[in-house]
Design goal:
Layout (H helix, E strand, L loop, with lengths): L8 E2 L3 H6 L4 H18 L3 E4 L3 E4 L2 E4 L5 E4 L2 E5 L4 E4 L7 H6 L5 E2 L3 E4 L7 H18 L5
Antiparallel strand pairs: 1-2, 2-3, 3-6, 4-5, 6-7, 7-9, 8-9
Length: 142
């Protein structure tokens, strides 16, 4: 039996999800991120799983045979911060992250506390480069 990715695209409402974010400031930032990601990628926002707002998608297949679909980029308003899902193997990523502002970089995510902490133009550049990188790596994607 193959491993199945838990996070799949759903038809759940992105707006309803953001509206359910308790903290008003976080909700406002979530709408701002929604705007930034939508405008920068040109993709409609879709819910992935129960808590990720994703844009576009790509199909990946690893050497192990494991394969699945994932959003090209996305974000999630978590309790303590925002998780930003951006491509990890992208060559100029580290350099661009230094210009982003206050953040923590995990293995697969970049964490920010609020939009006021970051440079929006740097974020847009990171989003664009992630999308370009993934579409080149996985050409059969949308």
């Amino acid at each position: 039996m193959g491993y199945e990715l838990k996070t799949k695209q759903t038809d759940n409402s992105v707006i309803a999800f953001i509206e359910a974010v308790e903290n008003q400031k976080k909700r406002e930032d979530a709408y701002k991120l929604l705007e930034i990601f939508s405008e920068t990628t040109g993709y409609d926002a879709k819910m992935w799983g129960t808590s990720i707002i994703g844009f576009g998608s790509y199909h990946y297949r690893y050497a192990t045979g494991h394969e699945g679909d994932a959003p090209l980029v996305g974000f999630s308003p978590r309790k303590t911060n925002f998780s930003l899902y951006l491509a990890t193997g992208e060559p100029g990523r580290e350099e661009r992250l230094q210009k982003l502002g206050k953040h923590k970089a995990g293995k697969a995510c970049v964490y920010i506390n609020k939009i006021a902490d970051i440079n929006e133009d740097s974020l847009k550049q990171l989003i664009r480069e992630s999308v370009t990188f993934l579409l080149e790596m996985y050409p059969n994607s949308e």
